[in-house]
Amino acid sequence: MRASDQAYATLLDEIQTGVLAPGTVLGEVEQSARLGVSRTPLRSALGRLASEGLVAQSSPRVTVVTDVQSADIRSLFTVRRALEETAARLAAASPLAPSFAGMAEAFASADLDGDAARDAYYSLIADFDAALDAAADNDYLVGALQNIRIHLVRVRRLARYRPERLAASVAEHRLIASAIAAGDGDLAAHAVHVHLHNALTSILDSLETSPALAPRAHSTGRKRTS
């Protein structure tokens, strides 16, 4: 792996997991030394993160980890809804649609009891996303969704764990998978719409009721998701 790719992967993981919190200053000298790379690959990595809206340059040699405000989350979900509803319709019309019956069964038997079980569930979600991408078979749509998912990792981390919401999410994913398997694009898209409405409501409620989780004032400043 190239030095710039390694630096990017490390910084991305640290931003997504909260090791590098919003507002953290990423000085070139300090980060180059910490990551064991020269400034050229570091700048390349920071440039990629900036294009994704995860960092912003505050001076020629200083970059800051961006924040995520409620408005950013709403905008993110507006784009996500349009993309995922379209992907669900395409998947339902795909030759791969019948394979989603197995995904529906997997959601039906999902276990949420304990951290390991929940980690397995999130892995199942990742498998579902990959299957949806393959069935949609549209490189431009998949590329846009992948960008959205980079930000969703941060957003989900901000949301307070709610057992009832996670259980509802399992049922919602099962319905989406079942509708795709049945070739019912309208139902699949509607199920996606309901799932994302509920997810957004839960995330915003978590931020409002848990001040300690609320983002700080430094916003991403992003007007769109590329």
Automatic annotation (TrEMBL):
Pfam families: FCD, GntR
InterPro entries hit by this protein: GntR_C, TF_FadR/GntR_C, Tscrpt_reg_HTH_GntR, WH-like_DNA-bd_sf, WH_DNA-bd_sf
Swiss-Prot/TrEMBL keywords: DNA-binding, Transcription, Transcription regulation
Domain HTH gntR-type stretches: 1-68
The UniProt record lists the keyword Transcription regulation: yes
SUPFAM superfamilies, sorted: GntR ligand-binding domain-like (SSF48008), Winged helix' DNA-binding domain (SSF46785)
Molecular function GO terms recorded: DNA binding; DNA-binding transcription factor activity
Transcription found in the keyword field: yes
Record protein name field: GntR family transcriptional regulator
